[in-house]
Amino acid sequence: MTRGMTHIVGAGLAGLSAAVKLVAQNRRVVVHELARHAGGRCRSYFESALGLTIDNGNHLLLSGNRSALAFLDQVGGRQLLTGPQQAEFTFFDATSAERWVLKPNSGLLPWWIFSSERRVPQTGTGDYLALGRLLFAGDRDVVTDRIDSRSNVYQRLMRPVLLAALNCEPTEGSARLAGAVIRETLARGGHACRPLIAANGLGPALVDPAIAFIERHGGAMRFDSPLRALEFAGERVSSLKFADETIDLGEGDTAILAVPAWVARTLVPGLTVPTEYRAILNAHFKIAPPASLPKIIGVINATTEWLFAFENRLSVTVSAADRFNETEREPLARQIWSEVSKIAGLEIDLPPWQIVKERRATFAAIPSQNVLRPEAKTRWSNLCLAGDWTATGLPATIEGAIRSGETAAKLATGARV
Ligand SMILES: Cc1cc2nc3c(=O)[nH]c(=O)nc-3n(C[C@H](O)[C@H](O)[C@H](O)COP(=O)(O)OP(=O)(O)OC[C@H]3O[C@@H](n4cnc5c(N)ncnc54)[C@H](O)[C@@H]3O)c2cc1C
Q1: Residue nearest to atom 52 of ligand 1 (CA)
Q2: How many C-beta atoms surround the C-beta of residue 338 within 10 A?
């Protein structure tokens, strides 16, 4: 692929990441997005039930997410992420009401696993050494083939962490993908595990600065512009058919398809993509959290899995939440609030609430789906793919999406990947 116009279809983080990389190299770029806004599955919006601007889902980054942080540095959103100076995770057991704080030390040498003050209560050093088995997992292994699911380190640490990272139960989740997450975070020491959140929203931190960067560098954003079809001629894509116009690709023009897997499949003949998805549920409660409440709490033995304390609301994340797809919303909100009010020490009735379910939040990070992920390069010389569902080696995450955009941008400029 050579110098010409690059048409990027999809303004989620994968498409934005590709666009940022390309415009930074003075490449000509147009980003075409179906919706009236960018961000895809990672965006802020005004939620009228709460009268607040919130995110479509609580998103957590870790300081080891190198591509995401490099992207934020490049576009100028990094200062909008907040988190503790040291890696610290508060956990709460809803059955016993026990609380503890996990504190991996910063350096590579994990001396924290020798300290009962820093590791999970009722675990021993050997339990953590055994986690190394995840790093050498085979393609077909699920997490619990590599970690003892009866162990406390699994129940009290690895299950909640990997359930969130993979968005599926670790009993079915790919050990290969779990290993990749651990390799880039916990195995690199506490400095790679600091939790980071966009306290004032994903839009202001990740999306708006990226759009500003793209436009400042001569790129164009086109919203309300769904791609309907690709046309092919021999080895190349010859045109892009949008709802209201057809764009012919000249020699040197390229296309990056950064749409969700289920859309890409309808546009690219013969494309193999993951076909199973898992839901994520977020419950938002409009109430100011007590000042002493940690910003993030991992919860075990409850429906609530992670509790996020924002300035104007408490928000709960439940991963692999398909079991709630048909559940009535109000009883669910009450159930979750009863847990949250105990954790936060707020003895009050249900405040204004909203429950947001993203049914196809991520592809199912299970071995049989992971092998369906296509490479970014396609058999057409001027078409490549981006998205958290492409073969990034990571689960469907911000980090994976941004990295996929980097790979596609390299391919579009003819670089080897
Ligand atoms: C509720 C929730 C919570 C999450 N929590 C976390 C978390 O804590 N940490 C983390 O790292 N990740 C998290 N994720 C995952 C993360 O949001 C995704 O991995 C990432 O946003 C995917 O980006 P993407 O660009 O690959 O895809 P998308 O965001 O899906 O972007 C695809 C874009 O293509 C557009 N499009 C679709 N069809 C067309 C068409 N025909 N023409 C033009 N445009 C089209 C879409 O509108 C969309 O904007 C979460 C996801 C959800 C849903």
Answers
A1: 361
A2: 13
For residue 74, what is the enclosing H or E element?
helix 66-75
> 279 with 357: CB under 8 angstroms?
yes
3-state secondary structure of 331: helix
pLDDT tens-digit readout, 333-365: 999 999 999 999 998 999 999 999 999 999 999
Atom of ligand 1 nearest to the CA of 164: 8
Out of 8, 32, 59, 69, give the residue to mutate to test ligand 1, the one with the largest number of ligand atoms within 8 Å of its CB. 59
Range with the lowest mean pLDDT among 1-5, 15-19, 125-129, 270-274? 1-5
Please give the Cα distance from 186 to 380 (Å, whole number). Answer: 39
Specify the ligand 1 atom closest to the Cα of 242: 42
- Alpha helices (H) in 318-372, listed in sequence order: 329-344, 367-370
Prediction pTM value? 0.97
Dump pLDDT digits (tens) for 361-398.
Answer: 999 999 999 999 999 999 999 999 999 999 999 999 99
Contact 61, 46 (CB under 8 A): no
The candidate with the shortest Cα–Cα distance to 331, out of 346, 350, 318, is 350
Measuring from each residue's beta carbon to the nearest atom of ligand 1, which residues come in under 6 Å?
Answer: 9-15, 32-35, 40-42, 56-57, 59-60, 226-227, 258-260, 263, 280, 282, 358, 361-362, 387-388, 396-399, 401
Largest CA distance in the chain: 67
Determine the angle formed by the axes of helices 66-75 and 398-412, rounding to 10 degrees: 70
Closest ligand 1 atom to 38 CA? 49
Q: For 396, how many CA atoms within 13 A lie in the half-sphere containing its CB? A: 31
Question: What angle is formed at CA 272 by the lines to CA 269 and CA 276, rounded to 5 degrees?
Answer: 125
Q: Which amino acid is at 326?
A: E
Ligand 1 centroid – CA 220 distance (Å)? 20
